[in-house]
Amino acid sequence: MKKKLNIGMIGYGFMGRTHSNAFRTAPNFFDLPYEPVLKTVCARNAEKAQGFANQWGYESVETDWRKVVESKEIDLIDIASPNDTHHEIAIAAAQAGKMVMCEKPLGRNPAESEAMTAAVEAAGVPNMVWYNYRRVPAVTLAKQLIDEGRLGRIFHYRTVFLQDWTISADLPQGGAGLWRLDASVSGSGVTGDLLAHNIDTAMWLNGQIDEVTAMTETFIKSRTHTLTGKEEPVNIDDASLFLARFSNGSLATFEATRYARGHKALYTFEINGEKGSIKWDLHDLHRLEYFEYSPEGKLRGWKSIHITDGDHPYMSHWWVPGLQIGYEHTFVHQAADFLTAVGEGKSAAPTFRDALKTDYVTDAVLKSAKSRQWEKAKLAGEQKQ
Ligand code: SOE
Questions:
Q1: CATH number of the domain to which 35 belongs
Q2: By residue range, what is the domain housing residue 70?
Q3: Alpha-carbon gap, residue 257 to 240, rounded angstroms
Q4: Which of 139, 194, 200, 257 to mutate to test the pocket of ligand 1 (most atoms within 8 A of CB)?
Q5: pLDDT (tens digit, 9 = 90+) per residue, 120-138?
Q6: How far does the centroid of ligand 1 lie from the alpha carbon of residue 87, in Å?
Q7: Is 193 near ligand 1, meaning CB less than 6 Å away?
């Protein structure tokens, strides 16, 4: 019999669902050292939390996250609640000796993220942040190709994350789902919500970003606040664009917006190296476009690799070659990798410290948009455990 690992889930929104599904599904497809148990779900609204518990099979419901953190029954706290709650819960959980998983971004600002990183490292508890796109098999394959040196020296990194769901001026800010528009809860707009994904993937694939120069815009300056009913200033960035230099000498462009009419979640990246290039697109997530320079001229060209074969990352755990998987599987992979790492007494990447690195870049982006100068990203150093 496998040892049980009891999970306390804080939050029951979109991310509460993706994480719960990941823990329920992972043991069916991966041979894991632990059996994850959906023990307690915690949310302020007891009735809604109970509905969520019934749906997903949580054994109990709690309305005070402190009780979950203090519970002797819980091994792992998974934070899937809005950004303004991450800091306090993660620190308390680490101090109570729990493993901690946290939805991205880590904190609302570097001070919060630093304190959270210090807490999990001081407690020596396994930790991870849910930057799920690293675990799209095509993206993991891109990492393998780069690490094998197949692109050679990298010159360019180009990436966007485009959405269009906040264009209406009638959309309120604040409250369920719309807390992303309230800077006091979210910390920032698309910089922390979307570009953080691009930055996490980019630094995983291509190394440290040294410096950035950015511009941001808030197109709709005030919106009705759901909680107060009043028209209040909007303090988030609706669009954020920046140029970056990586430590390896390559140059990058990053763009994220919620005002790209027609785009729902167009996350793409393209990397150009001396020996080849790769391109990936979330709307076609099971394909990796690969250009290899080495074949003789007349056979040279872009390949569109359908990432469904058993020798592609993660795919041997799923169906048969040719059959695709999707968005939710990225979370399943992340849960499986985390539980495997815990079995070895380790954290899984991206750790809190990895996410702190991303937060230092998003902070430099927001600073640069204000200063209109190039800003250096602070370095996060290495994991202390
Ligand atoms: C915002 O719309 C959002 O849901 C982000 O919060 C997620 O992190 C991203 O993966 C999809 O878009």
A1: 3.40.50.720
A2: 3-132
A3: 6
A4: 194
A5: 999 999 999 999 999 999 9
A6: 19
A7: yes
Give φ, ψ of 161 to 5 degrees: -140, 105
Q: Cα of 264 to ligand 1 centre, how many Å? A: 10
Ligand 1, atom 1, lies closest to the CA of 193
What are all long-range contacts of 319-328, with beta carbons under 8 Å and residues at least 24 apart? 324/286, 325/137, 325/286, 326/285, 326/286, 327/285, 328/18, 328/21, 328/22, 328/25
The CB of 265 under 6 Å from ligand 1? The reply is yes
Q: Which of 233, 128, 241, 115 is nearest to 174 (CA)?
A: 233
Select from 27, 88, 21, 3 the least CA-distant residue to 58. Answer: 21
Question: What pLDDT, in 10s, does the model give residues 229-247?
Answer: 999 999 999 999 999 999 9
| Contact assessment for residue 158 and residue 132, using Cβ atoms and an 8 Å cutoff | no
Predicted pLDDT of residue 324: 97
Residue nearest atom 11 of ligand 1, based on CA coordinates: 265
What is the number of structural domains in the chain?
2
Protein residue whose Cα sits closest to atom 10 of ligand 1: 194
200 in contact with ligand 1, CB cutoff 6 A: no
CB of residue 215 inside a 6 A radius of ligand 1: no
Distance 325 CA to ligand 1 centre (A): 19
Residues 89-128 pLDDT 10s: 999 999 999 999 999 999 999 999 999 999 999 999 999 9
Domain end call among 99, 132, 165:
132
